[in-house]
Structures are given as C-alpha cells and as structure tokens.
Amino acid sequence: MKLSRLSFTRLWAAHAWLGVTCGLVLHVMFFAGGFALFHDELSAWQEPELSRAPPEQSVGRLVARALEASAAPPVALEVTMPGPNRPFVELAWTETSGARGEARLEAASGRAAPETSHLARVLFWLHFLYHPRVPWGMNVAGLFGAALLLALVTGLLIHLKDLVRQLYQLRADRSPRVLWSDLHKVLGVMGLPFQIAYALTGAVIGLAPVMLSLATGPIFHGDRAAAARALWGESAAPVPAGRRAPALPLDDLLSRARAVVPGFEPDFARLDNLGDAAARAAFWGRRPGRLFARGDVVLRATDGALIADGASTPPTPGAAVTRWATGLHYVWFGGVAARILCALLAAAACLTILSGNWIWLARRESTAARAGNRLLLRLTIGIGGGLLLGTAGLFWANRLAPPAARLDAETWAFFGTWAATATLFAARAESRGGWVGLLRLAGAAFTAVPLLTAARFAATASWAGVAAALGGVDTALAGLGLLLLLASEMVQRAAARATARGSGPLDRPARRPVAARVLPALLLAAVLAAVRVGQFPTEVGEAVLFALAAFTTAVSIFVPLAALRPRWAWHAALAAPVVALALLAVEARAR
C-alpha cells in the first residue's frame, strides 16, 4: 500500500513528534520494566541478611504471634504469604478503634524483619511512574502507553510498502544517519509484536481506573462499587452481622482454600469482620491450568464454608481483558526464560527509542545549533545514558551500605547519580562523545556487582557460601555489564568506520543475504521453544507466546550482529543449544 504524499507527511510528522516528545519517558519505562519483570527475585536479593532456610512455623502461627502485641484484636487483616523469592511475611491490620498496624516477619525464624532496602520497589514503581503520594502517575503511564501505540501504528503505516526490507537491512558501514535509521527500523519492525503488546496492555492497566471513573457517574449514578462489580466482578463488601463469633485459625482457612481448586496456591489473604458472625476470608493466587489465570477463593471465616470461587468461575468481560492485559504485561508465561527474553526485548525497545532521537538530530544537523535540538541532544544522553549509571549506582549502594542506612543510600545513589549525569551533560557544550564513556562506566559498574556481593559474604562465609550467594541476579547483572561494554565498543567502532567511509543514500540495498541475518535467529528460537516445551509442562497458548518471544528476541539480536560481523551470528547460532540449556537451567533452579 502506497500512501499519498500528504498522508505520508502527516503520519511521519505524528510519528516523529510523538517519539521526540514522549521517547525519553518511554525509554525510562522500558528500562525499568526490564528489572520490574524480576521484582520477586530482586526483592529476595536486595536483603541478603534475611534467612532463606525453610520456615520453622506455619504462616498462621507467625501471624498469631505478631498480633499478640497489638493493643486490640483486629477487625480486618491482610497477609502477604512467603514464597520462593519472598523470605518474609507482611501483615497489615485494622483495630476496632480504626488504628492500623503493620509488621514484617522473617519466614524462617519468625523474628521481626524491618525493611532495609527498596531497590526492587523503586524500579517497579518507576516503570509505572507511580508513587503513593502521586497515585495518578500510573494513569499518566497509561497515557504514555497510548502514545506509544499511536507512534507504532503511524510508523507501521509509513514503512508498510517496504516492510520486508526493513526486517533485515542494517548498513553498519555507512554514515551515522544511515546506521541509526536502519537500526531504528530493524529493531522497530522485529520488536513490533512485543512493543504493541506492551503499549496496549500498559494503556489498559494505567487507564482502566480512569475509564471506570468516567463510566461511574452517567451509568452507575456515582456508585463506584457497583461499577467495579459490573466491570471486574468484584464481590460486595461484607456487612457485619452484629453477632460475636470466633474465626477459624488462618492455617485451617488456607488448607480449605487450597482444597477448593487443585493446585491453587494463595499468595495474598484478606480477612474482614473478624470476631463477627459475618467474618469473611478471601485468598488470591495463581490458578494452574489456565493461561494468565488468577482468582480468589472466598470462605466464611467462622466455619470455612465456601462463599465464592472466583478461581474457577467464568470471569466478566472486564475481568477477562484485565487478566490478559496483566498476564502479558507481567509475562505470566514461559517461566524465567520468557522473562529474560522480554527483558532483552525491553532493552531493544530502549535502543529503538533512542535511535529515533538520533535520527531526528541527524536530519537536522544544519540546525543543530538551535536551542530545541541542543536540548534534545543533551537530554537524550543525560537522561537516557544517566539512567544506566544511576541504576548501577543503586545496586552498588545496596551492596556497600550497611542495612541501617541502606534505604537512604539507595535513594541518593540512584536519583543523585542520574540527576548529576543529566546536569553534567546539560551543561556541556558538546555532548556527542559521551555515549561511549557512559556505556563503559555503567558496564564496568554492573559487571563489578558480583564482586561486591562476594566481598560482602567473604568475611562471614566459606568459599562455598560465597559461591551460593552469587545467584541468578548477580549473574544477570554481570551479563548486563558485559553487554554494555560490548555495546560501547561496537558504537565506537561503527562510528569510526562510518566516519571514515562517508555517507551514502538511505535507500541503498543491503549487500549481505537475508539468510545470513534471519536463519540464525530462526534456529535459536526453534531450539529454545522446543527444549522448553519438552522439559516443562506447557499449554498451547503459552508455547506459542514463548516461541514468539524467543523469535523476536533472537532476530533483534542477530540482525544487528550479522550486519556488523556475519560470522559472529552463525557462531552464536551454533551455540543456540547451549544458550537454551542455560536459560532452562536457570528456570529449573528457580522452580
């Protein structure tokens, strides 16, 4: 389909301006989102002093002991259950006077374990632009998701006539403008399924509360609870009966909830109207056997009788949409391997966004002295590159600061380093040469995190204990550091080679065959999908999503690699079984 000149101009203007105005915020959201996918793993890693030993007591006994110190019996109680990557139990309760209390206990010993790190939470909230004091930030994130979706649609329409060529054409030996243009198109086209999925699901998650509020007045006459019941199937709040009656122990209620749905493992519980005959206990958790399924089991707390079984009841249309949006966004499929693939795709999306800014600046080299272009150049490197350095500083602060000072140290290290880098490049007269240095510094910092972990445990543990402490998070951070170091070297070499050879037309055909770029990626994706499906029980929908994630990731990596070094791509493809087995070994260990 060939667009008219007017349509093309308007679509290109919309695509370019959306990228320039929203790109840096979307870059931050994608980068933080790669870490947010591993929120549970980071939550366990960030507090190494917590014991990972099996719990000595049941959850119910831990909760009962914690509530003994409260001034009055609670009337409402919320419990976050421990898990493989959550070595603690979190409680929040409300007393009859309305006073609220909170406690956090180490699952292994039952001792109080006040929070000493918020590393995982900072990155998770940053992805959604959220903070408890600014809850509407999540709605703003939904607007940025909608803007990204519009930018993707306009970009697709612009390049639809030559979409096949954009799948593989990357001319690394041309001018920087040609290189960034090709890189933007290749990563944009190959990452299109991932980016559309994340833009759409992010918009749904962020804007669903806004849409609910807009519908509450005219349709439900201001009754938000009724609107929530119609949209998501939420049950009505329990009304106290006014008669005293004791509730069953939490452990008994947990056992009854697990018996309702085979394989159902609650990770959160809420008990209302405790001490009343109408006391109710609701348990939330993942439901096995259905893709992205989460549900709740509601019991009468006084005798354990089943009130509602949301874990197997057909959901409302709104709940079904929310389930799919949340499941895709949080990658509730494919295990750890799929989350690693999606984290790599998030990194590719960051590069797609930043290369779009570089294209904008390269097209306007004759007007680069204008204030707007100078500002965009400095913000792109200061905010985009400073985020890498700030995140590395966050991990360093976690490992170097003592537990008592860790929270403040992490905050200052992350936001202070990020702000200082952005300020430095905003004040510099020339910012173009800073990318290589930032990539090298951030890469070295991430690579050194395992050394900091080893040094922290070396004084109190044997070499075997140090080796055990160096888990998947440290390995992943070292791998990220090596990738950044490799990227810095490739950027420097590509820039030098392109400058030496001069520029050429943007539409010059690619010299290397398509097979050298796409077949290695197909081989890696096929091996990854086949080995995983063969080793783990997998539903058809989960297998399809995993194969799509594997192929998209592989092509996003191999096409640029093949353009720069064709032999590297084939060598990496031959190593695909090793890569697949390594990913599956990580997942098997996590399980």
What's the SSE blueprint?
Elements: H1 5-36, H2 39-45, H3 59-67, E1 74-80, E2 88-95, E3 100-106, H4 119-127, H5 137-158, H6 163-166, H7 176-190, H8 192-220, H9 224-232, H10 250-260, E4 265-272, E5 280-286, E6 294-300, E7 306-309, H11 317-329, H12 335-363, H13 371-400, H14 406-427, H15 434-447, H16 449-458, H17 463-469, H18 472-501, H19 515-535, H20 540-564, H21 566-574, H22 576-590
Antiparallel strand pairs: 1-2, 1-4, 2-3, 4-5, 5-6, 6-7
Helix pairs in contact: 1-4, 1-5, 1-12, 1-13, 2-4, 5-8, 7-12, 7-20, 8-9, 8-11, 12-13, 12-20, 12-22, 13-14, 13-15, 13-16, 15-18, 16-17, 19-20, 19-21, 19-22, 20-21
Q: Summarize the biggest pleated sheet.
A: 7 strands, antiparallel
Distinct helical segment count: 22
Morphology: globular
Write the element-wise H/E pattern from the N-terminal end onward: HHHEEEHHHHHHHEEEEHHHHHHHHHHHH
**Class from helix and strand fractions:** alpha+beta
What's the end-to-end separation, in Å? 48 Å
- Backbone CA Rg: 26 Å
Indicate the mean pLDDT: 77
The poorly predicted ranges are 502-516
What is the quaternary state of this protein? Answer: single chain
Helix content: 55-70%
Strand content: 5-15%
Give the strand order, joined by hyphens, for the main sheet. 3-2-1-4-5-6-7
Structural write-up:
There is one protein chain. The protein is an alpha+beta fold and 591 residues long. Among the domains are: 59-115, no CATH class; 237-314, Nuclear Transport Factor 2, Chain: A (Roll), CATH 3.10.450; 512-591. It contains 22 helices and seven strands. It has a seven-stranded antiparallel beta sheet, with helices on one face. A hairpin with a 7-residue loop joins strand 5 and strand 6. The radius of gyration is 26 Å and the shape is globular. The relative contact order is 0.11. Residues 502-516 have low confidence and may be disordered.
